[in-house]
Structure of PQQ-binding-like beta-propeller repeat protein:
Amino acid sequence: MGDQQPRRRRTFLRRAGTSALALATLGAAGPGAASTVPESDAAGDRSDSGGAPAGSGSDPSAALDLQSAVSAGPTRWPQFQADAVNSGFTDVPGPAEASTAWTFDTGSPGRATVTATAAATGTPADGTSDDPTDNVVSSPAVADGTVYVGSNSGSLYAVDAASGAEQWAYGTGSGPDSREEVMSSPAVVDGTVYVGSHDGRLHAVDAESGEGEWTFETDGTVFASPTYRDGTLYVGSQAGTMYAVDTAGEEVWSTSVADRVDSTAAVVDDTVYVGRWNDDRTGSVVALDAASGEETLTYEARGEVACSPTVTGSVVYFGDYTGVIYAIDAGRAELVWGRQLGGPVLSSPVVVDGTVYVGSFGGTFWALDAANGDIEWSYETDDQIFSSPAITGDTVYVGSGDANLYAIDRESGREQFAVETDGPVLSSPAVTAGAVFVGSSDSFVYAVGDPTGGESVSATPPGGTDGSPSGTPDTGGSGAPEETTAGDGPGFGAVGALAGLGLGAWHRVRTGSPDDTGPDADD
């Protein structure tokens, strides 16, 4: 699993050329303004006269400090990407080697399921079955010694973090034999677990007993994860409505923002940021007032935004279906920089110590300079990356469609280890002290490292045993960088057809359409 493998390699691209793209905005920003789309698809398009990145007056690099309100801790990763801003960071060390402590089986792969949402291509999904093998897309949450995770078996599970023993299972769905997937990731707050389901409801479940407390009906299936902030849960439906719901299950507000919402919201101060997915293949990130749901700004993209945004300082980072990663001045809705990556960006970016970490459906994981988009390093896997990364002080943990969970050194981009599963790893990892938890499409949840925190466990594990980069390339002892690529990588090149990228499998997971070949399938 090292650099010698032909397609799984680290490429070192430490500021080898020009910055990603310094593009002027297209107009003055205001409420609802769309001022972030580049003027053309030409590679290296630069329309500002001075050569400085557009929006640089906001001094984004000064705001690229480490998030100070991280909710994760030695024993906690309580919601998707750790906290309300989708920071994806914890300051505790994760595992240093590929030791699987336990696996937990959520059910046998191969069961058919029915969903009611049509694909982005317009292919009817009613009465058709999802890809039957993508069983754990939900990303785990960890709190008070318990791992909470959803499954395409239609259940939310509570699993002992130390032993892997099941504590309880809570079924969603309209009846005892129904199977509405739980792809949403749980949020654990004050003894209650909140999670969305493809049954079109937000569920509140007692964290200790697994008993349902309440359900909140939405207008569509719920793929996105609920974001908790200051007594309110924010979540979108695949019918395009954003909801604010209090912890008693009462609606605070709701507003239609798009044809579809797959993005998990980031909530910063008094603003909710969430991605939009429209049927005409357009998209953006919208900023909503957290108290009222009123739209305050729009940050336009070239394609649908299923990615969950993150906000650091005054900059919003997100990707879209055309494969572009954006950095947008949050206050002025002006483009700071954008970069074309190799395939749709559905993985949520993480920004730590001036570096953006993000994966793409091209199979590459990228480390980019957060101030200007320059590539610092990249690491290739053998398949698409949907999993959002979890970052510690020295390591990036991320899953890939090639069935592996990877641990990558933050400075060098070199693989530390990989844990192989029997299915694509679409789930995003959760990290606690010495351990990482992640789901796989093989139907199992994996605990890697030492989930006991050094404490002895008498139970037998069920189902299995067992800063900025330094700028110094690894030479492998040869005196020359290994698998090094010259140049600074792709800019805003022409956006090609996505059908060849294998997006059909992803649409099947999300929508229940078995025959899609991607957003361009109907063209």
